[in-house]
Known about the structure:
Layout: H1 26-41, E1 45-53, E2 59-68, E3 77-85, E4 91-101
Amino acid sequence: MAEQRARSSKPAARPGSTRSTRVKGAEDAAQRAARGLSKLIGHTAEGCSEVAPADDHGWRVCVDVVEVPRIPDTTSLLATYEVDLAGDGTLRGYRRVRRYRRGAVDA
């Protein structure tokens, strides 16, 4: 008797596939922006300080990164990058909007 395998109605994902899925809210947008920016600029994301939906059904996320780590940590240089995501989560662009010392206070 020949064995029969159950087939799924969904096509199998190809290894290495880069097909994006829709962003599922602000938290998902922040995570995707931080991950994508870190890959592009080579600095570790420290966190996100702002997430907002954009007019074109995408997202605008401000990601804070450590650009120059120093000892003590309070003297490290950080930067805030504004990241634009499409509705499917792909990174469309970014720009650095601020650079500051970790211990600095906003005026």
